[in-house]
């Protein structure tokens, strides 16, 4: 069982031209107080910043691996970065019924390259 679990209702991919950033997100709902995962990367590439549920639970280059397991997405955090996430080592994102799932996963594969299994 994962340390953090989120049941995603929405997936999104947003390119922000002003700051030249790509955002990929999974959220339980549209409310600001709902659980979420956001991955952020400069449009030209570079380190990926992971944020989970709060801007205080975030770090760059935090992901060791990402694995698609049927309707679930398992994010494994590097051991050296778990303190940034309340010592959580894994995050499970439930994707069953997630709106824009396929588009979001395709963008995530491109963003993460070889760490996305």
Describe it.
By secondary structure, this protein is mainly beta. 10% of the residues lie in helices and 43% in strands. It is built from one helix and nine strands. The protein has one helix at 101-112, and strands spanning 4-7, 10-16, 21-27, 36-42, 49-52, 58-60, 63-69, 72-77, 90-94. It has a five-stranded antiparallel beta sheet, covered by helices on one side. A four-stranded mixed beta sheet has the order 1-9-8-7, with no helix packed on it. A hairpin with an 8-residue loop joins β3 (21-27) and β4 (36-42). The longest helix has 12 residues, at 101-112. The chain is globular, with a radius of gyration of 13 Å. The two termini are 19 Å apart. The mean pLDDT is 96.
Sum this structure up briefly:
Helices cover 10% and strands 43% of the residues. The chain has 117 residues and is mostly beta strands.
Shape by Cα distribution: globular
Number of helices: 1
What letter string, H or E per element, gives the SSE order?
A: EEEEEEEEEH
Can you tell me the residue ranges where pLDDT is under 50 for at least 5 consecutive residues?
Answer: none
Strand content of the residues, in percent? Answer: 35-45%
Overall average pLDDT: 96
Tell me the number of strands.
9
In whole angstroms, how far apart are the ends?
A: 19 Å
**Spatial order of the strands in the main sheet?**
2-3-4-5-6
């Amino acid at each position: 069982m994962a340390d953090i679990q989120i049941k995603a209702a929405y997936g999104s991919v947003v390119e922000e031209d002003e700051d030249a950033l790509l955002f990929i997100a999974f959220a339980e709902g549209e409310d600001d107080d709902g659980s979420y995962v956001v991955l952020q990367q400069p449009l030209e590439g570079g380190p990926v910043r992971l944020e989970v549920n709060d801007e205080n639970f975030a770090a760059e280059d935090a992901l060791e691996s990402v694995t698609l397991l049927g309707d679930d997405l398992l994010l494994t955090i590097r051991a050296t970065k778990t303190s940034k996430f309340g010592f959580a080592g894994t995050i499970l994102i439930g994707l069953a019924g997630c709106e824009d799932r396929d588009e979001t996963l395709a963008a995530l594969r491109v963003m993460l390259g070889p760490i996305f299994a």
